[in-house]
Amino acid sequence: MLWGDRGDGPEPLISIDAGQAHSRFDWDRWSTLVRTERYTTQARPLYTRLPFHYHRIPGKLRRLTAKALLSGQAPSVDSNSFPAFPIEQGLELVAHLLDPPAAPSSPSVVLTHDIDTGAGFGWVRQTAEIEFAHGFQSTWHVVGQGVPLDYAVLDWLVERGCQVGLHGYNHDNKLAFLPADQIRRRFDACRPLIDRYGITCFRSPSWFRSPMLFEVARDYIQVDYSRLDTDRSCPGGLGGCLWTRPFTHDGLTHVPTTVPFEDPLYWSESPESLVDYWRQKLEWLRACHGGIVVNTHPEPQFSGNARMLAAYDKLLDLLAEQQKPPVPA
Description:
2 domains, 13 strands
């Protein structure tokens, strides 16, 4: 039971009567405000105002810089930290009382990747082959301009059942902070790529997002992967939609990313420890019928190297095993 205080003592915000949950607040309105992240605002980092593209800085140095920027957003052992990472249970707990989800027959697994630079294309086939070996296909978000696109690799993916999505205009991380007309011009410049692959999905570079970005994006795509259920990944600050299943808002379907596989590397986890790091989250997602939406980047400083591919292979072993139907007694 959740409690509120109206001045004359605590009263239950949620109560159970004859097996039916009742609330003293507008659940639909409140849950929409939370899922659309109206409780927080992302700050624009200074590096997005540089007079040159930050990708001119070598990849290894960029990763060290990102690690420094995100060090202040490291998960805390303090149980009162909000939002908790990697599991934030609050909204899900209320939802299971007021709006319980239908249990799927098996957990939904969606594998996604973001190709930020031309260097990432060199590891795409190796990553995809690992997925195919486990019976999975994936979605690959690519930058529309400013990056030399390897169309042979993208065509190869599509021929094997994978999907190509849009990862913004040029990954300078300014997109979410621009006025509507400038955001629209950037999407228009990506039209040849959108048309070539019939692109219907999008993820904003570095997870930066804003109401204005989504308002424009819905005119170009149908599905957005820019939100995380609990976000310590974006340099713009803590946040997240606190939700683990797809939801629709203002004509756009949002699919929260729940397993940003590489993130613990920012906080001194090793590639070999990643699967164990995420194991409890995967079990929790299965228990609450949440979506398992994984994200990686094939750049050498992220998942484009032998140690990370081995870790990813181990993750897919676990996901494939969980996908198998139970053996009848």
